[in-house]
Amino acid sequence: MIGSLQGRITSKSPPSLMIDVGGVGYEVEAPMSTFLHLPPIGQDVRLLTHLVVREDAHVLFGFGSEEERRLFRSLLKVSGVGPKIALALLSGISVQGFVRCVQQQDVAALTRVPGIGRKIAERLLVEMRDRVSPTPTGAEVSAVLPDASPEAEAFGALVALGYKPVEATRLLKSVGPGTHSTEELIRRALQSAARD
Q: 150-195 has which fold?
């Protein structure tokens, strides 16, 4: 099992990135919560990883915090939840937000995450009830934000979350004028989508 990677980022295309570790390029899939905090291409990064072995592929997933990786692994144990759904959940909701949803049995909040239907949301709330515990509020990824424009990064993130490019553009336009960070743009765009 590959537990972590430390190396240079050679490419980024949400949700995939390539990390060069001693001349070997590792393709890694990462949730948007991790992706948004990655340093620019050419810089070093350290990610915790989880390897999923399938019949047709070995897929490596990377996480900026132990809390994210732990939740990802717990989600994979839920019947009907595979790596793609787990990645979508971590991209659309924070670890703390997911814990709150489970504690409050909030189906509506989970179904707002693209790719999560009511049936899966209800199953998650039932099966994860005994597996989650509140996480420390300081459990954030500490890294440098990328150099790309916040609008471009937010657009890429929304598309990776399952929104069509036209929808992503519309949501970003609904944020309105002003100088916003990538995270703020995504947060406001998702709030706008939730109101629609």
A: Helicase, Ruva Protein; domain 3 (1.10.8)
